[in-house]
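Morning!

This is the sequence you dropped in the shared folder:
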Amino acid sequence: MSILGIQRLLGEKGIPSPSGSAVWPKRTIEKLLTNEKYTGDVLLYKTFTDEYPSERRIINTGQHDKLLAEDHHEPIIT
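The structure's back. Tokens below.
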């Protein structure tokens, strides 16, 4: 099913978006379908702490290797 098809179906069923809107943004549906957690995987080191005991989180843009744990848990979507 396409993103537009999913958007129409959610609207027809009256399911509100996460923000409570009656119309689901296409980008929100796309993010749900591509988020690794929904497919049963986990991506580690998306962010990291620069220096202990600092609580400041930094987005990992290549400073550290990211690790993908596949089939980590039961997927919500296929």
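Headline: The longest helix spans residues 3-13.

More detail when I'm at my desk.
O.
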